[in-house]
Amino acid sequence: MAIRLRRPLAVFLMCAFIIGCAARPDGLAGKAGQGVADAALADAGPTVYQVGKLPDPGQTVQTGRYSYVAVGTQAAQVDPLLAVIDVRLPTDVTTVEDAVNYLLRRSGFNLLPPDPGDQPVNYLLSQPLPEVHRHLGPISLREALLTLGGKAFLVNVDYVYRKVGYHVLPAYAEGQRS
Q1: pLDDT average, residue stretch 26-45
Q2: Share of the chain above pLDDT 90, in %
Q3: What one-character-per-residue DSSP string does the chain give?
């Protein structure tokens, strides 16, 4: 007797499942020719921002199911010297000047050649690269350039011509004259 009751129950459940899969929601029933997913996307508004309206500062855009990206430029895109680097200098980089040129090669900046009479800067750039400076990072490019110069030098940046140079701090320049 129990077997006879199970068969009609199984048939009923299978029919309910098939009918449930074939049924369309009431809101989408009038959209003939569109799939359920297409109709849902057609009803959705713009996901980024409306036409003619700029995104709000701090706005994010969904790029995947669980991922969001901030809208706008990054600080390193505005000032490439703020880019964070992690670099191991190759063995053919032997002087501080070689190291500076190596670090600047993909930044869009070039090393400004020092004045011939600027002895401290000429001396700095001709010095052998300290072994401790073979691995720099993670560090900003600006900090890496300051590290290569040491505490007696500051980095000059010419953003118009995209040149980077060094100059001696006044406290150390006075010590050189005496």
Answers
A1: 50
A2: 49
A3: -HHHHHHHHHHHHHHHHHHHHH---GGGTT-TT--HHHHHHHHS--SS--TT-PPPTT-EEE-SSS-EEE-S--HHHH-GGG-EEEEE--TT--BHHHHHHHHHTTTT-EEPPPPTT-HHHHHHHHSBPPGGGSEEEEEEHHHHHHHHH-TTEEEEEETTTTEEEEEE-HHHHHHHH-
Q: Token digits for 114?
A: 């020092």
Side-chain-side CA neighbours of 116 within 13 Å: the count stands at 0
CB–CB of 43/32 below 8 Å? no
Each residue's pLDDT tens digit, 99-144? 999 999 999 999 999 889 899 999 999 999 999 999 999 999 999 9
Closest CA to 95 of 123, 127, 132, 134: 127
Count, residues in the chain: 178
pLDDT at 54: 53
Minimal CA–CA distance to 107: which of 133, 71, 141?
A: 141
